[in-house]
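Notebook B, p. 112. Complex prediction, attempt 2.
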Amino acid sequence: MKIELHILQNFPPANLNRDDTGSPKDCEFGGVRRARISSQCRKRSIRTSPVFQETLGENIAIRTKQSDKPLAKRLVEKHGFDEDEARKLARGLVGKMLGWDEAKQCTKVLFYVGYDELDRLAELIHEHVDTLREALQAIEALGDDASKKEREAAEKAYDTALGELVKAFTKETRDHIRAVDIALFGRMLAEVPGMNIDAACQVAHAISTNKVDMDFDYFTAVDDLNPKEETGAGMIGTTGFNSACFYSYALIDADQLAANLNGDRALAVEGIKAFLKAALHAIPSGKQNSFAAQTPPSLFMAVVRENGAMPWSLANAFVEPVRGPRREGDPGLVEASVRALDEHWASLAEMYGTEGTHCFVKVARDVDVLKHLAGARVETARAVIDAVAERLAPWSREVAA
Amino acid sequence: MYLSRLFLNPRNPGARRDAARPYELHRTLLRALEHAPDPERLLFRLEPERGPGVPVVLVQTDHTPPDWGPLMANGYLLRADGPKAFEPALHAGQRLRFRLVANPTVKKKVPGKKHGARVPLIHDGPNAHGYPSYHDWLRRRAEQAGFEVLAVQDAPFRTAPKRRKREVPATTYEKTQIPLFGVRFDGVLRVTDPARLAEALRRGIGPAKAFGFGLLSLAPAP
């Protein structure tokens, strides 16, 4: 089972995703310049959107360099350690995994970790507490007069004990993934390759359906460089921005997602619902204080593909850039984009067929010009998500083979 | 320095011809300097089109403000903004947005010829011929002109199609075309030597200035 997501979203002037020079990101497609929102940016705005967090509650992960703190808290609260010892053991363990930066008092790399995994780490420490405590106390018992050799031996013993624990955790890490975002977006830890998780979703860079002008007026701009004109007005117009109608596409592999969640298909469906809902509401935060570009999508479409049906990105609907109205009576940019997407869907459907494909779409009323996809219309954006969940219900009840 | 912005009239046959042929455009533009007490060179650039129809040309002169009156009067121009005087205040370390439409070439010696040939640097990276890329060219020119390129977007183009195979006789049209290779650089620079940059701004950068290459434009960086 695969779930496709298609969104058309028009933005007023904004700079949602910047490159290293501060201008909006762009790319070439179909031979012309397009505005672009990178997939990293889209994923982050989905992952951090309040909708995602509210829907999934504890079943999400945190990305932090201070994973020792929540871990120590668990040791104290759930396993009755005293605070000082809990802190030392927590630091020792995450430090063993990811390296410990003494100066900054945090791990050397970010740890993307779910709450369930933290619980399990705390349990593991509790189970092995005797060995760990012994090794730790051995180090502390060494006085200033201890020889270098003795000290090294004691530290090595502690290190080995921690290493055993990391090994044990890595082996069973897949059994403890309850964090839907890790299961969706995957995890890459160069330090502990055993904890890597393959992503279950693929997100495309959102590109504009129209050609965008990255042009700049150098005739007017020189005024700001003239010495007399240092009035502060020079700031106006120096931030790059553009206005564009974006097409976004993403694909979720439900089977991979369920596998990442230790076979829990019900949770996988919850995750897919949360992802769709968050994608509908998430808007990148770039330069929003200056532009407040919070325009919701005009087209929201989800497609459920049964096993064997090939997923389709509809980006090629816009390989010929869509144009805004050039004379009176022409359709607007959004309407023309909806039409192009509809036509492209029809041409793909004719060419490849739609067996095993279930499509649900909602288009804002003022631009609803669907012809070929008219049969897939549902009442609201929410109904698109509900329809997907309903379509996945039989699958989620099946026991994973 | 004086900067003007011209909107060519697409209904004027001369303007239409000039938009496609930089040599003719240069000849026409020089008419605005006929009143100049001493001969002066002008720098110009055809700007990328914004929307269909009206070609926009940016023109810069050093000490004579051009007179666009005659070209306005005969319907060649739709509108002329300026000439507007400008002397930018540059200082080291300043970050500026820039545009340069350049003709990146190197001179190659040809035995028996005094001036040799100009080879266009059409590659954007290392190449089998051992020529520098046009990015290398820009970096070197930047160093000479007192700035450092921080980021750049390049768009290579030709003002006329390359000659077809030599066996095929050239048409009259082809004979009168001057095939020039150009790259439009849009980017952000950092000023390292304000005096040199001011000089480069005044004189232009690289060869083929009479064909609409070499005018450097600056604006405050984002």
